[in-house]
Write a structure and sequence with these properties.
alpha/beta, Hypothetical Protein, Haloacid Dehalogenase-like Hydrolase, Chain: A, domain 2, 7-stranded mixed β-sheet, 4-stranded antiparallel β-sheet, about 30% helix, PMM_cap, Phosphomannomutase, HAD_sf, PMM, EC 5.4.2.8
């Protein structure tokens, strides 16, 4: 008997800490589970990273099937039709795909302008240069389509160095202190700062958090969101708290499977 999805319902998932361990590749078990879930429920992913990084993490579950005209140089190898999710929202939804088709983009450069961007980047790099932390690597600011990703240690650090910085940051609050300084310095820029992952934080205009993706989901009246950083200041907080969503806090990919099974699959769709 063919399974029919419940109309008007979608399950949205964060990536790091929800579908994968932080910056790790999804497991085969999780990939297979998501495809089983998709038979019953419309499924989307919403990550703060760009499409390339989301594709790397979700492995074979997000596959480039044909190359499209790139809209930024970083997408030369990743512009693609996305096969295995109904919606893929990169950069909080500032780059949005539905059924493999690009349906929307937003530009931080157009919003702020070059002069304000330069002011922010210059100040941030000076701050990091003066920051006393055990190690520093490269790529302290990553420019994405709709946001800046800032890493005090640098994104070129190894996984071991990433893990060590996360522990260090939990004790000394390097990122949160930096965010406080930037928030005060650039108060008139209307920027939002969102701490996520292990080593960095995102910077984007007010309202460009993960709730941005909801503008593409008007046909859904029941939107479930699953994320691990749902606390205030975390990059899942705004969409978790949104009146348009039913928020679920998860502690690991295994917990995501457990909660989704109970919500959507346990009663063979009877609970839907």
């Amino acid at each position: 008997m063919e399974v029919v999805r419940k109309p008007g319902l979608i399950a949205l998932f964060d990536v790091d800490g929800t579908l994968t361990a932080p910056r790790k590749v999804t497991t085969t078990k999780m990939a297979e589970f998501m495809q089983e879930l998709r038979k019953d429920v419309t499924v989307g992913v919403v990550g703060g990273s760009d499409l390339i990084k989301i594709s790397e993490q979700l492995g074979k579950t997000v596959i480039a099937r044909r190359v499209c005209a790139p809209f930024t140089p970083s997408y030369n190898i990743a512009s693609a039709i996305i096969r295995d999710y109904d919606y893929v929202f990169a950069e909080n939804g500032l780059v949005a795909y539905k059924d493999g088709i690009l349906i929307g983009t937003q530009s931080l450069k157009s919003f702020l302008g070059e002069e304000k961007l330069k002011q922010f980047i210059n100040f941030t790099l000076h701050y990091i240069a003066d920051l006393e932390i055990p190690i520093k690597r490269g790529t302290f600011i990553e420019f994405r389509s709709g946001m800046l990703n800032v890493s005090p240690i640098g994104r070129n650090c190894s996984q071991e160095e990433r893990d060590e910085f996360e522990k260090y940051d939990k004790v000394l609050n390097i990122r949160s202190k930096m965010v406080s300084v930037l928030r005060e310095k650039f108060a008139d820029f209307n920027l939002t700062f969102s701490i996520g992952g292990q080593i960095s934080f995102d910077v984007f205009p007010g309202g460009w958090d993960k709730t941005y993706c909801l503008r593409y989901l008007d046909k859904f009246n029941e939107i479930h969101f699953f994320g691990d950083k749902t606390y205030k200041g975390g990059n899942d907080f705004e969409i978790y708290e949104s009146e348009r969503t039913i928020g679920h806090t998860v502690t690991s990919p295994e917990d995501t499977v457990k909660q989704c099974t109970a919500l959507f699959l346990a009663k063979n769709n009877g609970g839907l």
